[in-house]
């Protein structure tokens, strides 16, 4: 994508979780293209570092911060560091997520807890940590990652993934209502099948192609397409949208 002439997120500070690869990396790049300063979070230190390195070639500032979004002290340290470094936190994108294709009979408690924790509790912990800074700034944008799975049933992941992504939608609505008086919006994106490691590492190419053919727009989505939606929700143009869940799925789910 060419760098927009007009940078709607200039001087805004954004944290994107799970931005070492896939959709998160594309989101970080797009927000940087729109002028935001970036803190690139990931569990994987070297992936976070390489995303930040890539962003530094644009005009904005980008740092990486390794943290597990399920670890409250680690999340707090990341947000404190961001606020100390930039003086504010304006945008949080809760993108970090994991998926396992396990059937219910085979999901053990540890796997259930981990999937719920990364996809749902992570969004809660990161949101809680940034809210004081957004309230202080009198402006904030939180974009949570649900999925088509959150509205229907996951075709790729197990029941824990479907449950976590449905939970993200409830959390989004509730938080949106609580923080609306502070000029903070909270929305969820619900991607369909997007071409990332998460999909490639879970289903084989033949099954992926069959899914893609079944969509009204017969292909997988691209990370950059989801990133454009997130950038819109993070902008002033989306000021009257809150508590919403926006589908981006090639027409796979129409409700
Ligand atoms: P991805 O390629 O697997 O990337 C997810 C990133 O999150 C990875 O870099 C991963 O790091 C990181 N991560 C995992 N656990 C973390 C933790 N505890 N703390 C910090 N970072 C962590 O997945 P993706 O396809 O880009 O998915 C991004 C988001 O979109 C997820 O929330 C996913 O559920 C959602 N989504 C994806 C699709 C799709 O079709 N791809 C569809 C609907 C929704 P490691 O590699 O080190 O684990």
SSE order and pairing:
Layout: E1 13-16, H1 22-33, E2 37-42, H2 45-55, E3 62-66, H3 72-86, E4 91-94, H4 109-137, E5 140-145, H5 148-151, H6 159-179, E6 184-191, H7 197-200, H8 205-214, H9 223-233, E7 245-248
Helix pairs in contact: 1-9, 3-4, 4-6
NADP nicotinamide-adenine-dinucleotide phosphate binds near residues 17, 18, 41, 122 and 199.
Write a compact overview of the structure shown.
With 255 residues, the protein is an alpha/beta fold. Helices cover 46% and strands 15% of the residues.
Q: How would you sum up this structure, described in words?
A:
With 255 residues, the protein is α/β, with parallel strands linked by helices. 46% of the residues lie in helices and 15% in strands. The chain has helices at residues 22-33, 45-55, 72-86, 109-137, 148-151, 159-179, 197-200, 205-214, 223-233; strands at 13-16, 37-42, 62-66, 91-94, 140-145, 184-191, 245-248. The protein has a 7-stranded parallel β-sheet, sandwiched between helices. Strand 1, helix 1 (22-33) and strand 2 (37-42) form a beta-alpha-beta unit. The two termini are 31 Å apart. The model has no long low-confidence stretch (mean pLDDT 96). The structure holds NADP nicotinamide-adenine-dinucleotide phosphate. NADP nicotinamide-adenine-dinucleotide phosphate (NAP) binds next to helix 1, strand 2, helix 4 and helix 7.
């Amino acid at each position: 994508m060419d760098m927009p002439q007009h940078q709607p997120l200039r001087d805004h500070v954004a944290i994107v979780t799970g931005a070492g690869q896939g959709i998160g990396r594309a989101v970080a790049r797009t927000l940087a293209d729109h002028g935001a300063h970036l803190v690139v979070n990931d569990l994987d230190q070297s992936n976070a570092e390489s995303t930040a390195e890539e962003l530094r070639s644009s005009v904005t500032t980008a740092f990486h911060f390794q943290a597990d979004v399920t670890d409250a002290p680690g999340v707090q340290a990341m947000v404190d560091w961001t606020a100390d470094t930039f003086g504010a936190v304006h945008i949080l994108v809760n993108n970090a997520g994991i998926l396992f294709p396990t059937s219910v009979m085979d999901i053990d408690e540890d796997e259930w807890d981990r999937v719920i924790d990364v996809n749902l509790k992570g969004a809660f912990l990161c949101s809680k940590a940034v809210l004081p800074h957004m309230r202080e700034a009198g402006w904030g944008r939180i974009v949570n990652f649900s999925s088509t799975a959150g509205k229907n049933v996951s075709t790729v992941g197990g029941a824990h993934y479907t449950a976590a992504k449905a939970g993200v939608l409830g959390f989004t609505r509730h938080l949106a209502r609580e923080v609306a008086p502070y000029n903070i919006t909270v929305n969820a994106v619900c991607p369909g099948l997007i071409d990332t490691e998460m999909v490639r590492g879970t289903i084989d190419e033949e099954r992926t192609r069959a899914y893609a053919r079944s969509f009204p727009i017969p292909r997988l989505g691209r990370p950059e397409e989801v990133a454009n939606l997130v950038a819109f929700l993070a902008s002033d143009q989306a000021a009257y949208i809150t508590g919403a869940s926006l589908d981006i799925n090639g027409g796979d789910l129409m409700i």
